[in-house]
Write a structure and sequence with these properties.
By secondary structure, the protein is mainly β. Helices cover about 0% and strands about 50% of the residues.
Amino acid sequence: MPEKKITASFEVRLEQVEGSVTVTSGGKAAGITGRMKLYGGHAVATGARAKAYLSVDESRVITLGENAEMTVKAAADGKKLDVEVTKGDAQFGAVGSLKKDEKGNIKISTMVTGIRG
């Protein structure tokens, strides 16, 4: 499946990795580069004792724990971003909120939340 580029004003980037981390696009390995921009169709997987740090704009971050997998999906209109954690643990942090015309979904099998403020 070809990459679906996100055209909304937000973007997802792979900021930093620790240990064994792989990125695939359409099932094929993609070379990891510094501050790599991820599009719909990309998948990120971490190995044992590995972590991946992702940013969503400057105000949201995702930390993918060891032995975890996630996929990035974009809606046809480019205004909606879905991140699905299909295996393992992930932490999500946010400062601020989405713009009026943006939507973001994070799918994970179990969740522990803390809300401050």
